[in-house]
Amino acid sequence: MIDVLIVDDEPMIIEILRRTIDWKKYNMRVVGCAYDGFAAIDFLKKHDVDIVFTDVKMPHMGGLELIERLHEFLPDLLFVVISSYSDFNLVRESFKNGVEDYILKIDIDNEKVLDKLLSKLKSKVELRNPMAGSKYPTEQLLQKINHEQAYLEQCVFRMMTITLEDNVKTVLVSELLFILRENAAHFVFGFFDWKIIILCFGEDAEQVSNICDFLVQKIHSDPEADQILIVGSSNCLGYKNLNELYDQAKQSLDAGFYHPREAYFQYKNTSNREYLAAYKRLMEMTSKLMESVSIHELSNGIDHLFCIISKEETTPSLIKENLVSFFGEIHRVIDKKFGSMATENLLALTGLILSATDYAELKELCSNKIYELSLKLNDQMNIPLSDAIQAYIHMHYHNPNLTIQDVADDLHVNQRSISNCFAEKMGMHFKDYLNQIRIERAKEILANSSLRINETAARVGYSSVEHFSRLFSKSVGESPIKYLKRNRP
Fold it and tell me: Is residue 44 within 8 Å of residue 7, measured between CB atoms?
């Protein structure tokens, strides 16, 4: 349904519009009414609508001010002005601010006029697309700063971008910023690429940073906006680097892929150099799969890659693009040897990789897929049981509840066979081998990531940090904290 809000200070006009129009005929419904612009904004803070019918002249806040205040931040919201003849010059002026159409009050019960208008609006809503704009919001924001260019050229700037999920949140934030703007002159804001963009400026970096911190604190402390906003911030740069500010602010949001519970991210440069080298080595291994490289070794390679990804916080879009290529190459190699054994799920896997919302989800998805492929290869190649067991443990060591019975059940053998295989091939018990794998993985994480010790313990399958620390110290000869300080840059 297409949701409609009616804004007019005359109750009779509202009732006529609500009751005389066959809204269902146009797949529309009236979801709310307001008697001035402020009441309309309050409604839009809680409800997402598609069309606003508004009078021009109303007490407190009129229709034109309402439209001017909302149009930039809700560019897909359609406005229709309800006018009398005496307001026609104002109506003509309103078209400069994004009004879609108008209707005279004497025609609100004219079926022919209404049918033409509502049919047009219905088509517009159903066919609308996001607005195509310029690449940067710089010019749009500079026009809002009431200072001479000579002053701006001496200023320091910092930009923030706020990701919004829907129109309701957009209204909440824009209204909050309007209020803050009355008491803080050194920032301007606008709507660009479906985000709210804030440009802070001042005479030095400390002043600008204080303004940004103040705004973020106010945004996240607002009771209506709390926990709904993700804010990305650039570094402080000069007047000649304004476009770079926007690029930095957008890129800073990538950190949310690694820290999904946080809401404010500041830009840091990511070279991706170590990641690209590791990815290149992984692809070289993939091309030799089943010749000189086993699926077990490939599993270790992708574990190492994800460790570097976590350490560098590699650009998510680059990771996803490369992982699609990685699995495509695996399927190509396997299919070349066995026919179309695996490619039937490649398209679905690509969709899952591209839609992954955070690092943990993507890593688990890839680990599970490698394990599925290893099972298929086991069936096709009659891989020795010891290799199958090792591959299974490398895929599932992070499960704190992993038991020898789980391995036996999934590999369709009995527990005694697993125990005998460990004794004969590995010369140790299952539990000892599992701890060995976990400690080696923990060493790699501690040396190459930013995870804390308790996070590392959980990542490799230990629910107790104390138990992990005892095993680590016994195996490595020093505590996790000493190992971390000695090996982490």
Answer: no
